[in-house]
Design brief:
The complex is a heterodimer.
Chain A lengths: L4 E6 H11 L4 E4 L8 H12 L4 E4 L3 H13 L4 E6 H6 L1 H10 L5 E6 L13 H8 L3 E2 L4 H18 L3 E3 L3 H4 L1 E7 L15 H4 L3 H22 L6 E3 L8 E5 L1 H13 L6 E5 L7 H10 L3 E4 L5 H6 L5 E2 L13 H15 L12 H6 L15 H12 L29 H14 L8 E5 H17 L5 E6 L2 E2 L5 E2 L17 H7 L4 E6 L4 H16 L6 E6 L3 H4 L11 E3 L19 E2 L5 H5 L6 H9 L3 H9 L5 H7 L3 H5 L11 H10 L16 E5 L3 H12 L3 E5 L8 H4 L8 H12 L4 E3 L18 E4 L5 E2 L12 E3 H9 L9 E5 L3 H12 L3 E6 L10 H9 L3 E4 L1 E8 L5 E7 L20 E6 L1 E4 L3 E2 L25 E3 L2 H4 L5 H20 L35 E2 L2 H4 L7 E3 L2 H11 L11 H5 L5 E3 L4 E3 L9 H5 L5 E2 ...
Parallel strand pairs in A: 2-3, 2-4, 4-5, 5-7, 6-7, 10-11, 10-12, 12-13, 14-15, 15-19, 18-19, 22-23, 22-25, 23-24, 25-36, 27-34, 28-29, 28-34, 29-30
Antiparallel strand pairs in A: 1-8, 9-11, 16-17, 20-44, 21-41, 26-35, 31-32, 32-33, 37-38, 39-40, 42-43
Helix pairs in contact in A: 1-2, 1-7, 3-5, 11-14, 16-20, 17-18, 23-24, 23-27, 23-37, 24-27, 25-27, 27-37, 28-30, 28-35, 31-32
Chain B lengths: L6 E8 L4 H14 L4 E4 L10 E8 L14 E4 L2 H7 L10 E5 L9 H9 L3 E5 L1 H7 L6 H9 L9 H11 L2 H16 L1
Parallel strand pairs in B: 1-4, 4-5, 5-6
Antiparallel strand pairs in B: 1-3, 2-3
Helix pairs in contact in B: 1-6, 4-5, 5-7, 6-7
Classes of the chains: A alpha/beta, B alpha/beta.
Chain lengths: 1161, 188
Amino acid sequence: MHRAEQRVLLGNEAIARGLAEAGCQFATSYPGTPSSEILPGLVRFKEELGLDLYTEWSTNEKVALETALAAAYSGKRTAVAMKQVGLNVAADPALSAAYIGVVGGLVLVVADDPGPHSSQTEQDTRLFARFAKLPVLDPTTPEEAKDLCARAFDLSERYQVPVILRPTLRICHARQSVSCGPVRAGRRTARFEKNPRRWAATPRARLELHKKLNEKLEAIGREFAEWPENQLLLPADRHALGIVACGVSYAYLAEALGPLGLADQVAVLKLVTPHPLPAPLVDALAERCDRLLVLEEPDAAVELQLRSVAPVWGRMSGHVPTAGELGPERVRALVAGAAREAGLEPAPLPDGGLRQASDGLGLPLRRPTLCPGCGHRATFYGLRRAFPDGLFPGDIGCYTLGLNLGSVDTVHDMGASISMAAGFYHAHAQDGEPPPILATIGDSTFYHSGAASLENAVYNGARFVLLILDNEVTGMTGMQPTPEFGVTADGHPGRAVDLEGLVRGCGVEYVVADVDPHDVAAFQKVLFDAADHARAPDGGVAVIITRYPCVTRIKGLGPDRVPTPVEVRHGPAPRLTAGSWDPAWLPEHRDRVSPCRDACPAGSDVERMLALAGDGQWDEAARVLLEAHPFPATLGRVCPHPCETACNRSGLDGAVAVHAVERAAGDRAPEPAPAPDPDAGSRKVAVVGAGPAGLTAAYHLARGGHRVEVFEARPEPGGLLRWAIPEYRLPADVLDREVARVTGLGVQIHTGARVGEDVPFSDLDRFDAVLVATGAWRERTVDAPGFDRDRVWPGLGFLRRVREGEAVDPGRRVAVIGGGNTAIDAARTARRLGAEVTVYYRRDADRLRAIPGEVDAARAEGIFFRFQVAPQAVEAGRSRRLALRLRDTSQAETGAFAVPPGGEGPAAEFWVEVDTVICAVGAEPDVPVVGTGDGGGPVDPWGRTRSRRVYMAGDAAAGGAGTVAAAVAAGRRAAAAILADLAGEPLDDPPRDGRAPDVPELGEIRLHRFPAEAPADIRRLPPDEAIWSFDEVDQGLPPGRAVREAGTRCFHCGVCTRCDICLHVCPEGAIERTEAGYRVDPAKCTLCRLCEVECPRGAIAMPATGTCVGCGYCTTWFECPALVPDADGRVHVDDRVCIACGLCIQVCPQGAIQPSKKELS
Amino acid sequence: MNRPENTQIVIAGIGGQGVLFTSRLLTEAARSRGLPVIGCETHGMSQRGGSVAAHLKFGAFWSPLVADGDADLLLGLDPVEANRALPCLRVTGGALCVVNASNQRPFPDPSVTHLLEKAGVGVATVDADTLAAGLDSPLLANLIVLGHACTRDAFPFGFGEIRDAAEAMSSPQHREANLAALEAGRTA
């Protein structure tokens, strides 16, 4: 025989022990404070006593009760444990079970939470029991709760009805010495006896069952009167006051009566069976008392039933507060007050004034907060930071505390986050665009009741982001396992239920699993992408599963994360009062030079152009380009686009296709303004050469109010744009339109007028200034034998002849020598004339000087390349007209003795037989200019020469072939110099050499704020089609796509776009919009610097102090218990609680929180 | 000879300070004496960084809670929480409060000093945080307070009883540090 043993057990463990001793064979539960320790207690005693006991954490309370009912139908003693709110979830099976009943005893342990301490409601399960018509027991102490378990099983089996055991929190979480005895003998085997009239009763049969239930309750009430736990104490014949005390209230009363000196004067009924009431006991009490005081929690379950029996004081009469926990002090005061009112004289209790003194200290209320290092903090912090204006439906669990961080707006009931997110969406969508809705729910809560809500949301077309916070356990209630990991209540393996699979099974297509929120920027990116999906036309519910272990369960960060102890730097800080900051510390919105604009040789404000194009304002976009030069449609086609090389977006997913947008803007450029009177100009300027440099200068000079005449040697204007760039790159009509833009301003172009031949030099004397922009047309040739042969053609000459319309036949095989743009243009032109072309270049492929896109196109068109070959000679060929002799230099080291003389050097020389050799190895200016600098060029970057009136620009000045953009830039510069010199004004800023100061770099761009979007695909003629004509290969972008390229892909580096993000993220509301942009209110700004950190494009200037400024940002919006504010508002790290998660380093925008050099103990 | 019978104790602190472990040590000490124990703990939401208090009563009691004015002993693991728990102290003479406090975080508040004197409450403070940091165990301030309490006559147990309880209740890897903390409190 097992000997009774005294053990100190938690109330819930005492209940578990009571259930186990009473022969419970089957137990289910869903954790919830204050009931959570019951099932673990059963597991503990099962192992300790070697019991044959099935235990399960069910996915929710309804499931738990239904599962248990089946076991009870089968004859087993069965227990179900849950908190009071859980019974709401299980209400449906509970009410039906009262009618249908059980075979084996079923004890439903439902823990109430008067206060409430950890619950949404103060609901009274005893009232639920009365509503459900179930007997309910209300234990006074843990020990009594344990003893009532056996009684409850016995009662349940005798009356074939489930019995509720209703402890309150003060029982569940009390700890008491209890005597532990042996386990009841008699294991039962499952036997379900079929009886459809009972187990599947129809409504008609239910009426009979209801009647039978009423009879059972009457009998049970009579039986309760005999229970020894119900005690009626009648110290006198007649009592002015009788007290009915239920549950723990009786414990308070028992300790209060003595000190109040009332033990011999009041009648007391200790009542553990609030429903059904033991009528004989109640009647006996009422007969001997003038009035009754009822002490019960949390509501008036007994008082309600006694009102017909006697005058009753209680919660309903107003004698007892209508809500809240009673507690010993309140019971003492209530009993003393009632006694006095009943004419008795309770003894006064000593009062040392400590309560009043303590209350008067104004002690700070410590609200519950997430544990230091908790991954939920990372999730909620990131949420709020990403969506300061988000709508955040929350749910039930530890993560309810996200409300402290401003990212939980509603907390209702288990699983409501999802249904409410859907409701919020539909309600707002009725009126227009809903705010971003981001719901949060824990993993256990999602398994509990999230799936049905999610199915519903998907099915009905709601759009929101759902975050499932997966910390691998049910954290709040004591680390119970969830279905995800397949470990059952007693530690045995079950079968894991995959969370992501479950979510997808609910119909969600967008799921991002295993997200670690500890990289704040990366996590924001995940959130932004999900929100984009929720908004997208083909989008819907987006689910993010964040995953990290509960730090409290694993007692630290876990093996995957490196502990990072931190310290808060305290240095000389700006004065610590908002409103008195030195303005130098405040944020300032300012526009900087974007990298594209900085890189543009032509000086175009590329960023502004993109901004306008992205807004669909094509006219305005074109006007921005026309500020710099008249050739937007041309440069959009032929410029190598250094702006794209500089583009910060290439650090994300590829540079913005600026050239395509520029071309689109150029093609849509407005008609030129009507020609002003050509005689109206104040001064006269001659421009020699109508290429890009000359025409750009003419354009600016005309706009500057001068009469300009351009002298062009060739029959048509355009220079190399017309004669050297093939039509498949730049169609003539495009060029004609742009030239017309210049002549439209009144510029006269004299074609076929070569100065010095067709026009005497003296003719230029009538001009106030002369700009020489004659280009570089004298072609270099290869200095080797045979390069003066007939079929050896210069590259530019070849291109010019083709463009002049001459019927040029290069033959079937062509060799092109060179690696610049002219070489590639010549090769592709020869290809179009029917030749097989090979390009020979003396260097590596990666040192080709031609535009890479052109080289790619050439290859695609079937042009071959041979690198590291040096031309040696051109000789007469055998099968073809010419033999081009080349030397392979790829094997040779640099240096004179790389190949030993007479040694076994490689057979380095070879020849190819071709019909034509085209040499494109460079060109130089062919016009000498009086008064030029030492090298034959200008003497300053503006293009001035030694002669006061003469200026130079373009290739003629640069001494060789540059890009069109460089020529345009030089033309613009020369025009500026001429304009200034003619006006007698100084030129302040010399043209910049190299990068502007303070150009935003990639690191300043908050990439996470920009959705990924690959560059636009430029439409091109297919190569096999392109080679049959001179039709333009590059077809550009359709207008809509060009708008998108500019509108969604450009970062607008360093330029404020009025995106309002600063305004939204400012925790103090210190930033307001003004007509001109934004204003920062110095009285509100706390210097937190979040606006600077969150500005997507580096357009806010605000110095980082690297020291704590006491702004309160981290303590308010991160709220880690380890970051403690001092009296002056500055923060220090409490090493007692810090677990070195290091996340706060990313939180402080001032950079005041840094890794510390302290060692972790 | 200490007399733990009919003693009522309140332990006040904040979540994570070890209020529950302190309570279990005292429970074990009482159990060793064969005394009936009843008390109450804080679980769930309130454990998360908020104010946490444990109540303990040795002897024949019904209620798990210590009513205002009934506590013979208040252990304050944090001075603010000790101030909050002051009303529990018995004011009829002989009660004791032992509090983790320092010059920066003083106890008691000057406004209650005379009330405690008038009520005959003995007050002892110990800078357990600093001592714990010195032991490289910032989380063991609770045991330093407990060890320090043992030096007072009004404390219901002898140091040996507490040390035995700590030996019995500590996991092997923490036993040595726990005992060192108790000793540091005793000699502080």
